[in-house]
Amino acid sequence: MHAVTLLKASLATTKKKYPTLIGDKLLVLAALNLCAEQIEMQQAHQQELDRYQEQVSATVDVISKAIGTP
Q1: Is 0.85 surpassed by the pTM of this model?
Q2: Which of 15, 23, 63, 65 is most exposed, with the fewest beta carbons within 10 Å of its own?
Q3: Is the torsion defined by CA of 25, 31, 11, 44 positive or negative?
């Protein structure tokens, strides 16, 4: 159901940007725009996860050195 809501919102946005598009062309462009947004969000999320992993690894290193574990 969430996907339908996202696609409807993308359709509305795409229709505002390209008012002359209709039918399949509008639907395809809206779907592609939605996919592009999702890919960008996924990449940003992965970068954030990578930063957190680096922070955790650095913290583990500091703790290991503090307690004398190699």
Answers
A1: no
A2: 23
A3: negative
